[in-house]
Predict the structure.
Amino acid sequence: MKNDPALGPCFERGLELAPLLVGPEDLAGFGLEIIFSSALGGVAGQHQPMYLGFVKSLSSQYGDRLTPALMQREIEKSKLDARSKGLLMRCVNMLRLMWCESGTILANLTQPTNLFVILRSRYLSSDFALPLQAALINALSRALAGMPEWFRWFFIDELAKLLKDPIFAAFLMELLQELRHNYVSFTGCVQHLNHLPAGMLGLVNNVFLYRTVDPAVLRKLKEETGMRGVSQKEVDDLPPGWAYWYGQESNDPEAARGT
């Protein structure tokens, strides 16, 4: 990456690169579940109840004392079948490469600089990269004792890819319900509303609707968010890059109606 000509001027102005390291606090809560739920191709299948329950029990039992080495020992002595153990160990081995016994990625937010996390690899498969991205969102959205409550914005393109993981979908639903109590805001982009879990649209404060010829999209928005004042003809005629904005809790009359 240092040889990337587009980044050359950035390095000259002080850009620094550091390996991505995560610790026990970063993977608390949904973090480990998200990563390990990918090991067997998601939570579906005959292995799901035993292996996901096993991961949850490890997290509950050891808390921030859980390390890749401890995970390996527990997996090896567990009653899981050989296939499940092998796939879970693949995740453990990937975690070893970025594990930090102390500290947290949230500590980077205390520095007077911008933080960019780039997940780029020629060889890392998507069934680990996407859950890792979700786990990082989980980590960076958490409050940490002793740190100031800075407001954090998350802009997630291709949100539907992350929502394919039921664990992440459950995490995001829970987080959206608590947004007004946290210093966190999410912006997600989807091409089809059928990718969203049931009830998620009702938790969204602002909707931006771009041109679509599918009348089911506007119909669903009106049913689940109360959006009004916009016709399908108006949506069909939107120029590229233009959108109708609907703010469910806006004190602007036009935004609350759809503008």
Notes: Residues 202 and 225 are 5 Å apart (CA to CA). The first strand starts at residue 152 and ends at 156.
